[in-house]
């Protein structure tokens, strides 16, 4: 981190579930509970285009992570983040709703003359009804006048791959069961495709 970039130590890979992002990171940020190690930085989504996140946001795999303020202006110098109307509930292991995830796509230029890009943002919000709010309000680390509970979101940004022509896809690299593919799985899938092409051409 000497060059100011946010990176994990060699051998570590940051790959949390949606539930872990809400309960172990976003909740700590919103409730003022220290998170150790505090590896996710705080950024203004309106100050940076998605391709400028490198070295500023936490980078792992092909994804960038950072905290931002709720309802912050989503317009950058070169474009804006547009909600696409997709919202997914985030459930705990006991099927209790603890948050929700919104999808946004980055557009270059101004509407209606804008251009949609492959950059996608997943915006994580806390669902306060999923927590025992009374116990957390009385926590020593939470100031009585503090209103930060609803001020923060956790953002995950990535550049999606091209889907079939004419078909839009906004989820990150996932298999049919919804779990993320590792780079090794992707390598073997590509290898299978290459072998099939070789067999068809011979």
TrEMBL record:
The keyword DNA-binding applies. GO terms for biological process: regulation of DNA-templated transcription; system development. InterPro entries: NAC-dom (IPR003441), NAC_dom_sf (IPR036093). Pfam families: NAM (PF02365). PROSITE patterns: NAC. Keywords: DNA-binding, Nucleus, Transcription, Transcription regulation. One of its GO terms (molecular function) is DNA binding. Residues 8-160 form the NAC domain. This is NAC domain-containing protein 68.
């Amino acid at each position: 981190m000497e060059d100011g970039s946010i990176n994990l130590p060699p051998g570590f890979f940051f790959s949390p579930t949606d539930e872990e992002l809400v309960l172990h990171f976003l909740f700590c940020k919103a409730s003022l509970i220290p998170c150790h190690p505090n590896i996710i930085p705080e950024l203004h989504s309106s100050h940076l285009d998605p391709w400028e996140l490198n070295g500023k946001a936490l980078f792992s795999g092909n994804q960038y992570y950072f905290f931002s303020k709720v309802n912050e202006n989503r317009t950058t110098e070169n474009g804006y983040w547009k909600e696409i109307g997709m919202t997914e509930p985030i459930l705990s292991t006991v099927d209790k709703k603890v948050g929700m995830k919104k999808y946004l796509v980055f557009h270059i230029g101004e509407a209606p003359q804008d251009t949609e890009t492959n950059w996608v943002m997943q915006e994580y919000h806390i669902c306060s009804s999923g927590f025992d709010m009374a116990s957390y309000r009385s926590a020593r680390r939470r100031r009585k006048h503090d209103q930060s509970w609803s001020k923060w979101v956790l953002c995950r940004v990535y550049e999606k791959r091209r889907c079939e022509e004419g078909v839009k896809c906004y989820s990150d690299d996932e298999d049919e069961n919804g779990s993320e593919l590792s780079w090794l799985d992707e390598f073997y899938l590509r290898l299978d495709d290459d072998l099939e092409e070789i067999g068809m051409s011979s």
